[in-house]
């Protein structure tokens, strides 16, 4: 399988900043609400587990809807979370299955677990664009799209890990801006992978 070349992580991060320029307000508010809910659910292990298993998937899909909308339409609309929750059961099952797969790979060694997480990282973006796919198909599609691109996504994550260390110095307040920045960069990364994959299709057919 041919591996397409993507824009650099620097370019992807630049595009993310451009998408957020003059559009920070709603993403920051959405992030604040999310962090408050997470903090409240973290008051007990049982509540935190229930929150993750039941709402983790729909919220992850909601973020995919929200940030892809910002990237594609230059409009961050919190109302799209309602659309994502219409796929509640499928999103919940997908989130649980992805978590189990990553956990199983991690039982072998940490590296296989990381590789699995990278391979499945685009699953909820795929569910946004191809809602007709069931759980395993969406996961498989993510794995297909990520072929040859896991290292670049890993390096992109490292860039934001460095930024997160700085955000900690602000007593966590910096995450209100860092998390939208990361999510927007992820949406741009998905767009880049998707477009390059489509461009590679004629070449694959010719072969």
TrEMBL record:
Q: Which InterPro entries match?
A: DUF975
Can you tell me where the transmembrane regions are? 24-43, 49-71, 92-118, 160-179
Q: Which domain of life is it from?
A: Bacteria
Q: Which terms are listed as keywords in the entry? A: Membrane, Transmembrane, Transmembrane helix
> Which PANTHER family does UniProt cross-reference here?
MEMBRANE PROTEIN, MEMBRANE PROTEIN-RELATED
| Protein name according to UniProt | DUF975 family protein
Q: Which organism is it from?
A: Chitinibacter fontanus
The record lists the lineage as:
Bacteria, Pseudomonadati, Pseudomonadota, Betaproteobacteria, Neisseriales
């Amino acid at each position: 399988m041919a591996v397409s070349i993507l824009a650099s992580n620097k370019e992807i991060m630049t595009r993310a900043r451009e998408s957020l320029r003059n559009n920070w307000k709603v993403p920051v508010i959405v992030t604040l609400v999310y962090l408050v809910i997470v903090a409240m659910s973290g008051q007990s292990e049982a509540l935190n587990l229930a929150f993750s298993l039941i709402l983790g998937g729909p919220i992850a899909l909601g973020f995919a809807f929200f940030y892809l909308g910002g990237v594609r339409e230059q409009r961050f609309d919190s109302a799209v979370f309602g659309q994502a929750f219409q796929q509640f059961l499928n999103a919940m099952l997908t989130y649980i299955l992805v978590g189990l797969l990553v956990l199983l790979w991690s039982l072998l060694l940490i590296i296989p677990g990381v590789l699995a997480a990278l391979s499945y990282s685009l699953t909820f973006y795929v569910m946004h664009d191809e809602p007709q796919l069931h759980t395993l198909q969406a996961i498989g599609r993510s794995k297909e799209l990520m072929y040859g691109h896991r290292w670049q996504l890993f390096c992109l994550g490292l860039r934001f890990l460095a930024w997160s260390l700085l955000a900690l110095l602000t007593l966590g307040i910096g995450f209100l801006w860092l998390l939208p920045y990361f999510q927007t960069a992820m949406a741009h990364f998905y767009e880049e992978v998707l477009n390059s994959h489509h461009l590679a299709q004629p070449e694959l057919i010719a072969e």
